[in-house]
Design brief:
The protein has about 220 residues and is an all-beta fold. About 0% of the residues lie in helices and about 45% in strands.
C-alpha cells in the first residue's frame, strides 16, 4: 500500500465479503456473507475508479417466461443507521452466504457457501442462472464453495473452504473437474486464487496451512510445465 486505508461510506455498511469490478459499466458488484445476505451493485457517480459518491443498490429476482432476472433497487440509507442495509428493500433476494465474485466479459460469477451454489449474472440481459448446485449436480465433487478466479477461456475456478481442499473448474458448458488439490491441510481453506497477467501461472493460498493456524498459512504457485 502506497496510500493509507480510507473509509468508503458510499459502498454501504454491511458484512462485506468480496467485490468484482466492471470498469466499462462503471460498477462494483459486492457479496454479503450472511444466510439472508444480499447481492449489491455500486454505480459510481463520476465513473470508476472514483468511489466517493454513487448509488448503492440491492438485487431482487423477477421470474419471466421461465427464466430469472435481477432487478436493482437503490438503498435509501447505505450507512444502515435506522435499519440493516439488506432490509431496507423488502423485495431483496437472499443469497445464502455470499462469497467469491468475479467479472468476466459482461458476466458476474459469484458463490454462495450456505447452499453450495455458483451463480452467473449476465449484466447485459439481466438474466441470472445457477451454473453449479451441489444438491442437483451429477458430479457433485465441489463443496465449500468460496473464492473465485476465471481463465481466459471462461472456466470458473472455485476454491474450496474445506471440502477436499481442491480448486475445481466449472467449464462454460457446466462440466466440473478438479484442477489442483492440497493434501494434509484438512483444517485450512484454499483462498485467493489469481493469475499473473500472462495467465501462465496460478497463485493461491492455504489460509491455515497444515497446522490449522493462521500463522502457518502457505502460498502456492502452479505453472506450465
Amino acid at each position: 500500500g502506497k496510500l493509507s486505508a480510507k473509509a468508503r461510506p458510499a459502498l454501504g455498511v454491511f458484512k462485506h465479503e468480496a467485490v468484482a469490478v466492471d470498469m466499462s459499466g462503471g460498477a462494483l458488484y459486492l457479496t454479503e456473507d450472511l444466510p439472508d445476505g444480499g447481492l449489491y451493485r455500486f454505480i459510481s457517480e463520476k465513473g470508476l475508479p472514483d468511489l466517493t459518491r454513487g448509488d448503492l443498490e440491492i438485487a431482487s429476482v423477477v421470474e419471466r417466461d421461465g427464466r430469472s432476472y435481477l432487478s436493482w433497487h437503490k438503498i435509501p440509507d447505505p450507512s444502515a443507521i435506522e435499519a440493516p442495509t439488506r432490509n431496507q428493500v423488502e423485495s431483496h433476494a437472499s443469497f445464502n452466504g455470499g462469497e467469491g465474485i468475479v467479472f468476466h466479459r459482461g458476466n458476474v460469477y459469484f458463490s454462495t457457501k450456505g447452499d453450495n451454489r455458483v451463480w452467473c449474472y449476465d449484466t447485459d440481459s439481466g438474466e441470472i442462472d445457477i451454473i453449479y448446485d451441489m444438491r442437483e449436480s451429477g458430479n457433485a465433487i465441489l463443496s465449500g464453495v468460496d473464492n473465485l478466479a476465471i481463465t481466459p477461456a471462461g472456466d470458473v475456478l472455485v476454491a474450496e473452504d474445506g471440502g477436499n481442499m481442491q480448486i475445481v473448474a466449472i467449464t462454460p458448458n457446466h462440466q466440473v473437474m478438479p484442477i489442483v488439490q492440497v493434501v494434509g491441510h484438512d483444517r485450512s481453506e484454499i483462498c485467493g486464487p489469481a493469475f499473473n497477467s500472462s495467465h501462465d501461472r496460478l497463485f493461491f493460498s492455504s489460509q491455515r496451512g497444515e497446522t490449522g493456524s493462521n500463522a502457518d498459512g502457505e502460498m502456492f504457485e502452479v505453472s506450465r510445465a
